[in-house]
Amino acid sequence: MSLLNEIMEYNKKFVDEKLYEEYSTTKFPDKKVVILTCMDTRLVELVTRAMNFKNGDVKIVRNAGAIVNHPFGSIMRSILVAVYQLQADEVLVVGHHDCGMSSLKSAKIIEDMAKRGVKTETIDTLRNAGIDIDQWLEGFNSVEESIKHSVQMIKTHPLMVDDIPVHGLVIEPHTGKLDLVVDGYKKVEVNN
């Protein structure tokens, strides 16, 4: 049986037996928080449980490394929507130790793309079009510095108001222990 068939079979049971009822909530986060975190499988439930959040308490945005790369990309848009439309009053940026983005090298991922069938000409076309694919695919050296960067991108965004605290944390993916990197309640000098 394929994965999709397994999903559809289970989903029928999930709906027929009304297993969804324990997850019923509104679209507004009860704790008025939006979390940007990594897509790492170890964090799917760990991030919220380690902070004592349950279903319905927070909005969660996930991407590789909990990184805000572009001020007008989909990650930043999702955070702004959470603040202005879904009543989030605080932002938590949560990276993690042992993150795959900390060892990601663009040359390696481009090599893996080629093995899966992406043509060198496609990569060259993107580069010739002015897209810095090498920098775009590169990871980071320090999770703490990466978190500080994402916090700064959010906090200094021209559409973000000053009264929204933006915190930065790093979680240990094996224990759930949190390390505070940026306390969003404290006024800090931000380099523009």
From TrEMBL:
Enzyme superclass (EC): lyase
Cofactor: Zn(2+)
Alphabetized GO MF terms: carbonate dehydratase activity; zinc ion binding
Annotated Gene3D superfamilies: Carbonic anhydrase
Claim: RNA-binding is one of the keywords in the record: no
Note accompanying the cofactor annotation: Binds 1 zinc ion per subunit.
InterPro entries in the cross-refs: Carbonic_anhydrase, Carbonic_anhydrase_sf
Reaction catalysed by this enzyme: hydrogencarbonate + H(+) = CO2 + H2O
PANTHER family xrefs: CARBON DISULFIDE HYDROLASE, CARBONIC ANHYDRASE
Protein name (record): carbonic anhydrase
Species of provenance: Oikeobacillus pervagus
